[in-house]
Predict the structure.
Amino acid sequence: MYEIYVFLFSIVFWGLIYQLVIIPRTASASFSVWREKLKGDPELLLDICEPLLNEIAEMMSTNFQSFWGSVSQLGKKAEGLDPSIAMKKAIAKGDLFQVLAEYVGNKAGLGSLQGLMQSKEGQKTDETKGFSKL
């Protein structure tokens, strides 16, 4: 039983010594050595950090390019939502019903919501549903 107390006491004692004495002295010695090296050669810090700085610059340029790509995509989407462009496309197709739908939608103030209301072309309608078979 006595050995367990000695063992626990030694762990606590050496843990405290390590935390309170050894770590601070080692850290302060290390900091003083680095301060002296940096005072002697200030560009040493740039040489040490150069790979990190290069990687940051590369990440910034990549993110900047993707940012401008997303901005241009938003611009294209905004052009597609412009009611006047939809009206011009309908007039160019010669689709009278689409022209009327765009005109009524613009007058009603629906604006960009009209794109959501357009019917999807090429879908089959199921004739077995609805009131036609009653």
Observations:
- Residues 129-134 have pLDDT under 50 and may be disordered.
- The chain is about 80% helix and 0% strand.
